[in-house]
Each structure stands twice: as structure tokens, then as C-alpha cells.
Amino acid sequence: MKPSPTTLRAAVFAAVSLLVCALGAWLLFGRGTSPLQTDLLAMLPATERNAVAEDAVERLARASGDRMILLVANKDDGAAKDAARELGAALGKDKVFAHVLAELPPFDLDQLVTPFLPYRFHLLTNDDRLALQAPGFSASDALKRRLNEPFGATVGPKLGDDPFGVLQHWLDGQPWNRATLVPEDDMLTAHRDDGSYVLVVATLQGSSYDDGVQRRAISTLDAAEREVLAAYPGTRVLRTGAIFYAAAARAGAERDTHVVGIASTVGIAILLLFVFRSMRPLLIAFLSTALGVVGATVATILVFGQLHLLTLVFGAALLGEAVDYSIQYLCARANAGPAWEPMRGVRQVRPALLLALATSLLGYALLALVPFPALRQMAVFAIAGMAVACVSVFWLLPALLRGPAHAPLAKPFVLVALAWQRVASGRRALVVIGVLVLAAIPGWLKLGHDDDIHLLISPPASLEAQTNAIRDIAGFGGGSQFWLVEGADAEAVLQHEEALTDRLQHDHVAWTGMTAMLPSQKRQAENLAAMKALGPLRDDMVAAGFKPATADAYATAFPGKPFTLADWKAVPAYMPFQYLWMDKGSIVVPQGDVDVARMRALAAGLPGVSVIDKPASISTLFGEYRGFASLWLGAAMVLVGLAFAWRYGLRGALRVLMPPLAGIVFCVAALGYLGQPLTLFHLMALMLVLGVGANYAVFLREGEPHSAHTPGAAYAGVLLSAVTALLSFGLLALSSMPALQHFGLTLLLGIGFTALLAPVSAPAPREIAR
Description:
The protein has 770 residues and is an alpha+beta fold. The protein contains 29 helices and 13 strands. The strands form three sheets. Strands 2, 3, 4, 5, 6 and 7 form a six-stranded antiparallel β-sheet that branches. Strands 9, 10, 11, 12 and 13 form a five-stranded antiparallel β-sheet that branches. Strands 1-8 form a two-stranded parallel sheet. Strand 4 (182-184) and strand 5 (187-192) form a beta hairpin.
């Protein structure tokens, strides 16, 4: 027997769904790496004025690379060092770490001197160059003083190789000689009033943002730390690195996903069982929703190649909206009784579902227009999920729900819906809405705004405290505020940076930058000219008491050769600092407490120099988007209104549009009364309130004529959809991410108000009669 069109459509949809599920399983688990994106920077939009500035931000943020940076602290110096040795040994046993540095390997200290001898005449500190150029400078006197200086223990060139001491002074200013950590007992150690701090660096065998690497590495560290703390009482282990921030973000997202996903699933299940009094509608509703979530996940990974944490948590909340479509179909079935016919049910709900889908997709499409990676992913996820869930109602559910419902909707639920519908409809409801709008005005007037970056990224306070302590003690950990120096070529960049660093040195501001290691060719030429002006170096050296052979070797080496960018890159000691250099730019990082206002003052008037303050840039961008969002919200209202006017006429459109608009007005007023400053994320959520709220008005408007024989049944279906949405989106208010908290609270208030006001959109009895 030839299968029916209903069966064929269901078979095709089921086959495609199985393929999508298989693809989703492979994308999530079959490629060896997780697509879950725990890189916090990847969630943020580009905020700087050009690609060089964005590259600089990323370079500085990743300066520590895929490493754990640990400081082992104890008041007893010996205990701190022994604890650090044991911690390093324990970590080194796990292959998740490519390399663990606790004790320094043997190396020739001359490696920090010998590479610079060919360039010694070009490498002078500012102080030495000015001293050589000063009137009355006597090379002979300087050489005699140098010969009579007591020899220190510092590593440096031989006296014959550096008779004036200028190379020694330059080497003293190199980053490794300015570090607070010094080698002691083959360990890098810093001393503070409260004891000793010993550095341990563990390099990962993989990316800090790989979920498997995160879990294994942190588990190993936690176990090793427990053993060390037990063996050496009073020991503390401070930690920082991208892996800890990524892991904290992942843990927070998993916790939020479990809270939202599990709580909303259980709540929705209990509600559906109560209303439909059967397991079958519950399972079918969840099947439709699950297919929507799987389709959304696959679409998002295919489009973006990854899944952000924010999208993951938002996806858990999407359950409450995706289930709306199947709920409306299930309600139509329950209301039809014995006269149920699957395809007639599809034709009954199709106009409402398509119009509701269009309004929802409009709200999410506006999110997709925002150049903000996290919001774009959320939009694509929602658009795909909503579309799949809706199509499943048209193609899959008719084949699964051929027979009539065993019972109508739960009578208590319908009676409650009917009682409220009578209260919230008619002219009396319009008067009440008008009064409430007046009452909302003070709430609007109380509104402030907040565009802080910590709305999106809020790492644990304990981790931030440890990072700040490590930065203060050891100088590790990138900051988010720095000077960016740009130029047409490498030489221009270095000259521009020297103009800045000369000013920093004059104002006694500590810094780390390129020109401390690589002077510009112009500056090197000035250094060489200062050395050349001293006259015949050999004669002065011999006169001062140097052996003729030594003086001959030094004079023969003059003038040496300039130190180039290629030479700098070839020096192993400079490898940790290569993040400071870009093709047409460099980074200068302030050391110590330097506020942004002073940084801007120090850079004022210097060509090619700007201050990059990533948190402030993002906050400014949030503020701009917040302003644009109000315009987008207004545009969305106009578009939705036009769609409703096309379907219902002008007067009908006003009635259908009133509940979501009033819901938005009352929601914003409630935020003002609650003292919640308005943020970008509140406004993004209001767009969803418009889309979701319009769904409820449409469901009631379209469903009322089909359930006139059961007063209150259509509104009961609306309330059912609203409660499921509140059980999911509302739980976002409990999220650990402030942005999602704002999403959740806004949707909780907005959807709640809209659902209660939905009866205003119901058609008048004469319209139903027609």
C-alpha cells in the first residue's frame, strides 16, 4: 500500500534528523578537540581602530602562552624552595605538561653577554651617551676609574671587552636583569616581607582552551598542590594563566547549563504532565525541542566552527521557547476531542506558528546584525533551533499524533486561564493598562545605564587576586592597558617608541618595551658617533694602563656592526619578549601602578603613540550598541506592526501589538524600580520580549476562533507556553554571568507582563462569529 503524504514527510524529516544528529555527534566528540570555546577574548567584539591595535591586545593577553605560572610561597625560605621542587617534580610526571621549570637548568652565563659583543659600540644607555657627549669628558680619566673599580659578582663582559663599562650598563637594563625574581639555589626566587616566593612554570602539551587539556592539567595541579601543602604547612600556591580563566569560564557555563537545563526540563515536564495528563504529549514536545536544539548546535558549529560559553547557556534556556510550537499543536489536538484529524490540526495552527516564527526570527536576526561574536552565535543558534522546532510540528508531529487526545486540557488550568482572560480583556483592561503606563513613568525616570565589560566577563575574585599578586611579585601576567606604537616601517616604529620611552625614563616610569633591547638605527648611529668622538681608543687605553694587546683587540673591533631586528630575533634570551613586536607596531607595557590618565598624558603629542585600554574600549562600544539597540528595537516594533497589519488590519494589529509593547514598557519600569541600570543585554532581551510576546498575542488571536466551544482553552495554551518560557529563560537570572542575569531578569519580567496582558489581543465575539 502506498504510504500517505503525512508518513512520507515524517520519514524524510526523521531521516534528515538522524543524519543531523550523527553530524552533531561527530562535530562534538569525533574530531579529537572540543568545539566549546572557553577563550573569553573570543566572545568580545573588535574594539580598536585598526588591525594592529587588535593584534596588540591579543598578543599581550596571550603573553603567558599555554602555560601555568605558579608562585610557591612560604615564610621559611627553605620550605618554599623544597615545596616548589616537589610541586615541579609532581607536575613533570604527567605528560599533559610538555615542560615544567622549577629548577634552572645548567647554562653558561656568558650566553647573556657574548652575543652582544659585536654590537657593543652601538648599544649605549641614554645616560652613557649623554655622559660621553658632555663637555669636558675625559676618556683617559674614565678608563682609569674603570680600572680601579672593585670587581662585582654581576655577570658581564670582560674588562678588556668593555673598558668604559657602557655595555655592562646596557646589559644591566635588559629585562632579565630588571626582574624581581633572581636565581637562588638554582630557583627563581623573590623575597617579600612575608617570606619567599619561588617560581614554577608548567608548559602545557596542548592549548589552554582545549577542554581535555584543561581538566587533566588542573586535576594534576590540584592533586600535587594538596600533597605539597600537607608536607609543608604554611605553604601557599598562587596561580595564573589563560588555562585558569578558561576553566573558570567553562565551569561557570556548565553550572549554569545544568541549573537552567535540568530545572527547566523538570519544571516543563511536570507542567505538561499536569495539563495534558499523559506521557505521550510530554515526550513528543521534548522530541521536537531536542531536535531544534541539536539542529541549532550543528548549524552554529558549521557557521562559526565553535560554540561559545554564552551560547551554550543560552541554548539551555532555548528549551522554553522551542517547545511553544509543539505545545500549540498539542493544545489544538486536546481541544479538538474526538474530531481530531492531524493535517487539519496543522492547517489550524500553521498561520499562527508561521507568523509567530517570523516575529521571533526578526528579533534574533537583529541580534545577528550586531558585530559581537557572542550575540551573533546566540542569534544563529536561536534562528536554527526555532526553525527546526517549527518544521517538526508540520512534518513530524502529524505522523506521531494520529489519534485524538485521551482527555482535554486540565480543567483547573483552563478555568484559571478563563478567569484571568475575563479580567484582562475588554475596555476595562485598556483603562488599567493606561493607569499602569502612568505608574511606570517614575520607574523609567529612575533608570541609569551601565556598560562595564565585567557584565560579560567576570572571573572569580580569588583568581583575579592571585593574578594581581603574581604580576606584582614576579612581573608575569599581561595587562589590558598599554602603549601601542605604530610606524610605516620597523625603523619608524622604534624611533617613535624611543620618543615615548625617553619621556617615561625622564618621568621615572618603569616599562618593558622593544627599545630597551633594540635601539633604532638612528639611536645606534648616535651611540656610535659618541664613541667615535672619544678619539683614538687604543692610545687612551694604553695610557690608562691596559695592556697593548688588549687595547689593540678593542680598537680593531671598533666600530663593530649595528644591532638589527633579525639579530634581536636570533637571541634566545629575547624569545619571551617577542610578543612586544609586530610588523608595523610595538607594545610598551607600564610596570607598577600607572593610571590610564597619566599614560595618556605621557603619550600626548607623540607621533604614532596611543594608549590602548581594552576594558574602556569595550565599555565604550557597549554604550554605543546600547544607543543603537533602542533604534533597532523601535525598527523591530514597526516591522512587526506591519506584519500584523497585513494579517489583521490596522485595528487588529494595534490590539495584537499592545501586549508585547505594554510588556516592554512595564518591564523597563520594573528595572528602574529595582535599581537595575540599563545595559546592552537588557535591550537585547527586550527585542526577544517583543518577538516572544508577539507570539502569545498571535497564538491567542489565531486560536480563539478554533476553541470557542471551550472558553479559556486558547488562552490556557498561551499561558502554558509562557510558563515554559519563564521556567527556562527566567532561570538565566540565576546565571553566574552578569550578562545572562540581565537577559534572564528582563525576559522574566517582559514575558510575564506580556502573557498576563495577552487577553487584550483576543478577537471580539463578533469577529469570531464571522
